[in-house]
Predict the structure.
Amino acid sequence: QGDICRALEALDPAYLELMQQMLKIDCDVAARELGISNEIASLIIALKPAELEALVERLTQARPDAPVPSP
């Protein structure tokens, strides 16, 4: 699970939110297009809004130049 968290932290915050939206619409197609496993896809989908927001906040603090997605 730690490897998965580190991989997610390497993503751009806006991209992470877009990934979650895509996966919620059509998980199989989105996972294939994104090149991620079903396990990773399930974890991204399962992120609650507060968890996603906390992760995005951590990402933007770690990378001040990262764009902050609009609410």
Remarks:
- The CA atoms of residues 4 and 43 lie 9 Å apart.
